[in-house]
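Question (not urgent): is this output format expected?
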Amino acid sequence: MGFRYDGRLQSIHHVDAYEIVDSPFGLIPGAPVRRWDEPAYFLRLGPPFRPDHEVRTGTGIFRAAALTADLDLLLTCSTISEARDATRARRAGSST
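Got this back:
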């Protein structure tokens, strides 16, 4: 799971565990006792790691839009959009 803001990738975290929940109560201190209309994923993340260079957002990625990019490409490309596009091209060419 990666996080980006201020125009660049800030950190990447391994998802150590997850739960599908219908309320944050008991998981987040101070959360009210309420049920959500839809279930949501509650992720437990490992420590952050970062590329050894700045990875800017790039073009065609807007605000809080979610996207998929292979980890090795995020660690080697200069922008997130480049990693996203390379991931799409890689997967389009795969035989699986």
